């Protein structure tokens, strides 16, 4: 089973690309848990929310994995939870790092911040924060020596780059 993670900072086209790839390959995609969590709580996130978000993200990933034949797409994964905990709360969730290391993600598609930023109340901070977060994502992928391909350009260009990268590992 190949696990493909679409990752990157806020407003970089992750969800759009994840859905398009899921449709193209007719394989499931796990959603980004924090989205529904923020929508259901209708308030700014607090440090105490980090563990429920991480647990929910893991559960979403695992639930969709049961439906996959050869591929599964993750609209972000628990690495995002780890990065956001560090960036926004200057903390680490120790058990989450251990769980992350137990999982075998085959490829990361790092969405570049080269598309127009779109506001999303309660979900996104700012274009400047997006650029800063992008640096954190790239640093973590490099530091952990995770396999990734940078995805950039138009919607069509992003899809073509992603399909080429995925087909190369199938």
Give the SSE string. Answer: EHEHHEHHEHEH
Question: Going across the major beta sheet, what is the strand order?
Answer: 2-3-1-4-5
Question: β content, as a range?
Answer: 5-15%
| Percentage of residues in helical conformation | 40-55%
Calculate the terminal CA-CA distance, rounded to whole Å: 10 Å
Tally of helical runs: 7
What do these coordinates show?
- The protein is of the alpha/beta class and 170 residues long.
- It has one domain: Rossmann fold, CATH 3.40.50.
- The protein is 53% helix and 13% strand.
- It is built from 7 helices and 5 strands.
- Strands 2-3-1-4-5 form a 5-stranded parallel β-sheet, with helices on both faces.
- Helix 3 runs antiparallel to helix 4 (78-89).
- The radius of gyration is 15 Å and the shape is globular.
- It starts with a strand and ends with a helix.
- The mean pLDDT is 92.
Topology of helices and strands:
Elements: E1 2-7, H1 14-25, E2 29-30, H2 33-41, H3 50-65, E3 71-75, H4 78-89, H5 94-102, E4 107-111, H6 127-143, E5 148-151, H7 155-169
Parallel strand pairs: 1-3, 1-4, 2-3, 4-5
